[in-house]
Structures are given as C-alpha cells and as structure tokens.
Amino acid sequence: MSEHLVPGYCALCRSRCGTLNEIIDGRLISVHPDEDHPTGGAVCLKGKAAPELIYSEARVLWPLRRTQPKGAEDPGWKRITWDEALAEIADRLTQFKTESGAESVAFGVTTPSGTPIIDSVEWIERFVRHYGSPNTCYSTEVCNWHKDTAHTFTFGCITPAADYSNAELIMLWGNNPAATWLAQASAIGEGRKKGARMLVIDPRHTEFACDADVWLNINPGTDAVLAMGFIRQLLEQGYNDTFVRTWTDAPLLVNEVSGLLLREQDITSDAVTNHYLLWDGMDNTVRPCTDAVAGDEVFYQCASLTGRYSLSLADGKTAVCTPALEVLRQAVAGYTPEHVATVTGVSTEKQQAALALIRGSSRIAYHAWVGIAQSQNATQTERAIAILYALTGAFDTRGSNRVYAKPPFNAVNQLSLLPESQRQKALGLSERPLGPPASGYVTTADLHRAILEHKPYKVRGLVCFGSNMLSAHGNVDTAIAALKQLEFHVHCDHFFTPTSRFADILLPASTLWEHEALKIGFEISERADAHVQLRSQLVTPQGESLADYEIVFRLACKMGMGDNFFHGDTDAGFNHILKPSGLTLEMLRAQPGGITTQVANHEKKYALRDGPDGNPRGFATETGKVEIYSERLLRHGYSPVPQYIEEVPEQDDFPLRLTTMKNALFCHSQHRSLVSLRRKSPDPTAIVSRAVAGNAGIDNKDWIEIITPAGRGRFRARIDDAIHDDVVIAEYGWWQGCPDLNKPELPVNGENGSNYNMLINYAAVDGISGSVPLRAMRCAVRKVADALAWKGERRFIVSDIVQETPDVRSVSFIPVDGALLPDWQAGQAVLLRVFPEDKPEGVCRAYTLSNAPGHGAHFIVSVRLQVQGTMSSFIHQQLQVGDEVALTAPDGSFVIPTRSISPVVMIAGGIGITPFISYLSSLELRLEGPDLWLYYGNRNSQSHAFREQLQAMSQQFPRLKIINVYDNPLSTDVPGEDYQHTGIITAALFDQKLIRNRARFYLCGPGPMISSLEEGLRKRGVFTFDIFKELFAPPVPRITSRKASHKVVFARSGVTVQWTPAAGTLLELGEKHQIRMAGGCRAGQCECCVVKLTEGVVDSLGEQTAPGDGTCLACQCIPASDIVIDA
C-alpha cells in the first residue's frame, strides 16, 4: 500500500486554506490542515469532503451532446469525443462572431470567490477578451463588485485585507467569516485572544454576533442609514482630524451650483496648473492643493471644513462654494439617532455603544461583503461605510485594513485585451456606465433581455463555466425561457445542474484536486500575501474531465488563437505569469507547500515618497485622495455623497422583512448531494422570530412557505429569539438531491421548490451596480406541515403480538383515534412509552419500525429480550393485546435509499435486522435495480428472527443475496442452508466486487460490531462516506451538574486545570493554558476543533452537536462534569 501526505490548498472558497492531502494507492482519502501554511489553521467540512466530490458517481465524466429538444425531460445526452466537442464549439463561436459580432456570444462564469473556478478564471477572461465579447455574466453585482470596484470610488482600491489578528476593534458588517472565509475566522480568534473588541452589524444572530461586544441586529437593507447616522455622530463628536484634512478631499471646495470641485483655472483663466482649491481659514483666502503640499499636515491644518464661501470665477460670475466635508455633513444631517433607530431597528443605546467602540479604537479591521451588496442601495451603502472608515483614519496600518504587497507577476486577463470599441457594447453599459458593464461584466437581467427581446442586440450563444444561473439569480422563469431560446449553449461543470440541462454540449470539468493550479498571494496576512504556491495534481482525473483552463487552452488553439495561449502549452502560460517574481514552475513543483517570497511591506503606503518626483503616493482616485465627495459619481448622474432610497413600505399581504444566508456546509448551490454534508443539513432552513412563529403556529423544524410578490418556496423553520420580530432569514442554493439519504432533487421553479431566487424579482435594483434586493424583500410566512406527523406522543393500542423467536417479539400498534398513519422511511424509529404498574409515568425507549413504510393502519416494532432490560422485559412478559401505549411520530436519519444507483449492502447484528426488514418489505424486488446484499449475524437458528420471511424473499427475488453468519450454530443447523459462515461478520467477508463498484454499506447492530466493521471496511478501501450506521446502545444518562467548577484533564498534554464559567469553552480554556488546539471557525461549523472525550460529559453552548463517536466540539462545549479529553 502506497501512502503519503501531499501539501496543497483548497479552492472551494475565498479562504484557500492550506491542506495536507492523504493519498493511498493513488486515491485521495482525507484532507487535513497544513499548520505550516499561512492559511492552514483549519479545514472546513466542505474541504474534508473532497473525496466525495472527486469520486461521486453523479459527476459528468465525458463530453456530451444533446439529442432531444431543449426543455425535454431527458436531454438525451450522447457521448462524444473532445475533438468533436471542441470542433463544434469552435465552428459555432466563429460563425456567430462573423455573422453578428463577438458580442452575440455571452459567457457565464461562476464566482471566483466561492468556487474552484479561481484556478482558471484569469485564463477564461483572457479567452473572452481575445475572442472579443464584452459580455461576461458572473454574479458580481450581488457579490464582490461593491467591496471591490465600488470601494475604489472612495479609496481608489478594493477593500484591503483586514488585519484581524492585530486589531483593537474587529468590525463585521454583513459578513460572517465562519460561513465564508475560515482563515478570516481563525484570524479573528487570534485577535480576540489578544484582547480585540468586536462589533457585528447583521440582521442574523450569527456565531460572531453571539460573541460580539456589541451586536447591532439591523433591519435588512437599511445599512446605509446606520452608516450615515454613524457618520453624522462622528462629525459631531470627533473623528481623525489629521487624516481627514490631509488625506481626504474633505477640505476641497465644491461649487454649489455645478457640484464640481473648484480648480485653479475656474478662478484664474491663465493659470498654468489646475490644482484643486481649499479655503484657508487662517488667512481667509483660497489656496491651491499643489504637489508641494501633498501630505503636508501643517498646510492642511489651516483648511476650513465648514462654511460657505463666495468666490469670483474667471468668467466674471460669482460661485458659492462649500468644503466637501460640509456637503457630507449636510447630507447626513437628518440621520439623527432617533431616525436611525426608527428605520434600522437599532436602538439609540446600541448605536452609542457601537460608536464608543469605534471612537475608542485606532486599529480597526473591518470587512463588509454580500450582506450590504444585495439591495437597491448597495453602492451607496458601500460608499457610506467606506467614508465612515475614512473618518477613523484607520487605513493601511497594523491592525487595520492593510494593502499588502504581492510578489510581482504578469497579468494575463487585463481588460485592455478587449478593444475599446467592443467594451462599449457591453449589455447595460448605457444604463450603468460606472457599474459592472464597464469591466465587461453584465447582469442576468440584461442578458435575458438580449436573448429574448434582442435589446440592444441579439445574444445567440452562451458558454458557461460552472455557472448555475437558475439557482444563482432571480427571475427564474424568464431565465428558463432565455436558455431555451439560445441558438447554442455550452456548459462546463462537475455535475448535471438545472442550467446545464439546457446546454447543447456539456463538458466535464475536473475537480480542483485533479489538476495543478497556481496561486499568488493568500490575502489574509502579510506572510500569506507573499506566499506563492503551485498546487499539485493529487489524483488522476476521473473519466475525461479537464481543468477549465485546459478546456480554454484547447479551444483557443482550435479557433486560431493559439498565439495568445502559448500554443496550448499551459506550463508556458503559468511561467509567463511567474516571470517577474523570479520563480518558475520547476521551483514550485519542487516545493509543493509553496514558497514565501521576500516582499517589502510598509504601513501607510499612501504617504510613502518613493517616486521620482518625491511626492507621496496618495490614493488611486481622481483627486489622489480618499474621496468623501465623488465628482466621478456626480458626472454620471449619481449622488457624490451617500444617499438612501427608502425601501418599499410595508404591505398588508407582505408584512415581514426577508433576507438570506449562506449555509456554511455548502458552496453556494453546490455539494448538497454529498452525504457527509447533507447529513448535517438535510433540508433548507429559514430562521423566523418568536413573534412570527407564534402568529403562524410554527414550531422548530415545521415546514413553512415563504411568499413574496415574486413567488414562494418551502423551508424548515428554525426559531431564533434574538432577531427582530418581523424578520425572516432563508437559505439560498437549494435544488440538489442526495439519493443516498432519500433526498430528491428539488425544482428550481414551480410548486414545492426551495430555490430562494424564486422569491426575488428585479423591481427595485441598485442604479449604479444593478444589484437586486436579495436581502431586502417583503414577504409573508405560513405553516404548511408539521415537522413530524404529530407532535409529542399519541395514544395507541396493542393490536397483535407475534413471537418471532424465543427471544424476539413483534408488536403491532394501531392508533386509538383510528386515523390512517403517515408515510415514513425504512430505517426510521419511534419512541415507545409503556406503563408498568410500578411506573405510572411510563418507561420510554426508541425502536426502529419493522413493517413496510406506507399509509396504513398499524406500526410494528420488533424487540429482543435483553437480560436486565426493563423495557424489553416488560414487552416480553407483561405487554398484552389491548394495552394502551404512547408513540411519537416516526423520525430518524438512518434511512436506506429506495432508488440507489449503487449496490446496497445491509449488515445486521441480531435485532439490528429491523430497519432492513422494513426496507426489503417496501421494495418491488421484481423491478430492475441495484444488487442487494444482506449479511445477517445471529447466534444460531433459534435467535434468527424473520428467517422464513427472508428466505422467501431471496428465493423470489434474484437481485437479493442473503449471507447468514452464526457465531454458535446448533447441531441441527445445516451449513450452506441455515447459514453460510460461522463466527462474526467481518469486513473480510465482503466480495471485492462490491467494494470496487462503490457499494453502500448500511450497518445496524451493537456498538463493538459497528466499530470493528467500520475500521475493517476502511482498510479494504471503502470510503467513510459510503458507510451508514445505526448502533444499538442504552441511553447515556445526562449529567446536569450545577457546579461552578469542573476538573479538565488534557490527557495528551499532561495538563490538569479547573474550569469555571469565566474560562469559556474548552477551546478557550486550552488556549489560556497554551494547549495547542485547532480553532477554525469557532462557530461549531467546520469541526476542526473536534476532540476525543474519554471521560465525563459536556454541554454544548450552541445548536451544533458533536460528530459522534465520543467526541465533542471544543469551541462549543463546556464541562458538565469532570472530564478527560485527548488534547
């Protein structure tokens, strides 16, 4: 067996966490954090699910061509060769460009921030721009555009990396790193350990909100109002005067008539230079801001920041001018604490608490992302927050937002590759000249219009790289109509998606572990951004899948663009990127963990005088300063200072506020087919307030329907007492099925769907960016189904008792009310309560149902008599037909799939047969389906429950094979007839063909048997995620100690300490005593902090539970008794 660890990094999200990848016999088995990597502190569950992604049987593995009309239930995919696929694509793209111009083809690209397309995006953009299309459809208008491009309106750069680990104040505004950026979450943990305070502004009661010094649970979509209110109060109560005067345009004079900034030539026609002007309050005169005074704090200290000044212009007219800061002051004058509280729901007391944190901190690290980017005020919200940050002066200093230097490299996707004449044809550019179309990024709404209405011209073709528009954007029905209308549609993806079903050609994209990838800079810290790494190809690509960049290189050569793509040589392309750094692919391949380069970093780079003219660098804006007042916005018809457009008022039919959230277990709309992740989040969730729940009669896990003017969707309810009464927060991205857990695919439109984007329309969009109100809709909520068939216990009567063996009884129950029983899934259980005479409160125990699922009149449980078993003894010795009992509704996550595409191997120990009897009884075994194997362990024929029933099934149905194993056969038991093997069931019994064919193994029995089989199966090459288990064990008595102190033994470290509530979680306790423990997200989501609990009991502070197997989440747990943990 060949086994080794290979360094790499995960590209499933923006965090790009450093990893160590366990490879055994050429297969990726597991993924672990690489603690030597600058982002390697933790790996989330998505990253750990890598083997499931690679080896998923649902992957697209071959180039495919559609043979049925678009919209057909089955596209009729036909396998073709890569040469056939690329030749057809090249011919059609060339045809469209010749006949209708390159603009007639649009490109859809999934988000580089949250998917592995980051490995290829620069090459995709290079292809698009050399081809000549100005129309690339990301989701940028609802994702990164505001924190990146819109931030340049103020600071001239994208939002720099937040130096959380050295901050005095950490400010998270509409951003939850625990769900989106694990490396940031780890850095926040480091900062908090050093004493940083934390301010969280979010409608959601996130894990960081729970931990914050101040949490502002703001009404969705009102962030601009809060930011403008904070600006007003800072202007009144104090801000960083030196920074604002010297490095922002606050002193520059604004002509009140034209709105333009005043310049030298406005007042002196023959002025040689044309610098901006300010009013010198000391000498009462106007002065130019020449290069000589750039960065001169003494000069700017004389500037007036308030007042109105009349100046004679060169044309003889008089202009009244106001300093830019005064214009801002007037713009926010109405945003009093009381008004802000009314609109945002944030009380004046909470506002003051937040402002005290901001005013009391000089090192402020903040990040604002999609939480503020998905409303009709998105751009001006970003502007307001950026200006608020500018007032603090905390920019590019240690512990603030740092502009880190990267190693030099050659860009290959620069916008200048696209001719200016083509840039001007971008869809939506005339409506949004400063928005995403200016960079060639178009919205889906504009794309749909061009396809369906041919406005401003007809888009004929679409080439998509992983973009699932039907689950990522609103107006779903319009999108479907547009996809049907396309003349030609190419789609590259790992899986079949709702969007790819409309493609003419579907291409198999490799996963990130199946190809090399280059990353220059990892963002989160100075060291991280100096790090360069070539991620190795860890495994052989499945099928004929290729990296997206390989597809682009091959297609470019087919289309005669080989000169621009290094004649198809990807190594040459990557070496071209690296050339300025002095690194090569050969060097990086020799060091797969990456190379940290030596890069000079300075604080306050804007003040550096390192140019040939000796002037400070300043900021990359028109004024060279931080622009509190944006003349650029003004020239294009937008407000130069922040403004807020009032949201749609409350409507009787839609009284609630709707926003959305990312499920941390999944990458946007992907990965819900993966068992390890879906087990932890089986259904789409919507958080509702206690008030909404009370009004609608909703309990936790009930199915609810959210209704908006655009549509409706179904979600499981989760009640949160902390959010505002009128707020609803629903997950997005739900469509994918998970056959192994009996979870069907959900429709992206129509009835019974849970696609959040069905709830969204484009009635109110951001005028600059085109952002849509994903986080600012109005809605109503109604309950559609209980979480379970009934709540609590329901009265039943024993209707029949069958003695299956001397020690196994099957008991039938019918409801007292005579109503039909609900459907359930094979493998689910009920809680049965019986009432012995000496225990009037009853005795309760869980039992798996052993009869076939379906609407019917009775339930059956089968119970083995256990020595000293109170419950089983009562059932065997006292329970009689006609006795009354109580049952809960069927529930449980151990289910056996009724439509598996893989062989199903059932392994039962003794009475562990019950879920499999239920399952087999429910199948129509005469129909085609996967092979079914049952390995059934018993002592001998006397304890062999359901022997005749199972024997009849095996004789009747050829795809069912039963292997009986007796560990103590009777002399009358016949080998080969009554049983096939002696001893116990071990992994060695299973046919190698089952393992080779990726059979699913379902285990039910006592704990030691389960543990032994799991270990044996893994050694034989069975993936952990292909093993499903239900073990029989007595309930663990819960310790509810009220002690204020417990002993905690860190066994591996040899440290024993006393825990008190002040010590916090086990993770925090360990850190205080220098115990090295993985922290990760610190929210219980990534499970990096899982530790073995060898003695004692713990309590969890949150909803997250331990993954099982005697472990606990150190970041969520506190002792409930004296404990011993393996740390």
UniProtKB/TrEMBL annotation:
GO MF, one annotated term: iron-sulfur cluster binding
PROSITE patterns in the record: 2FE2S_FER_2, 4FE4S_MOW_BIS_MGD, FAD_FR, MOLYBDOPTERIN_PROK_2
A Pfam family: FAD_binding_6
Domain 4Fe-4S Mo/W bis-MGD-type: 3-58
Every 2Fe-2S ferredoxin-type domain range: 1046-1127
Domain FAD-binding FR-type: 791-897
Cofactor: Mo-bis(molybdopterin guanine dinucleotide)
Alphabetical keyword list: Iron, Iron-sulfur, Metal-binding, Molybdenum, Oxidoreductase
Similarity comment text for this entry: Belongs to the prokaryotic molybdopterin-containing oxidoreductase family.
PANTHER family, sorted: TRIMETHYLAMINE-N-OXIDE REDUCTASE
Entry protein name: Molybdopterin-dependent oxidoreductase
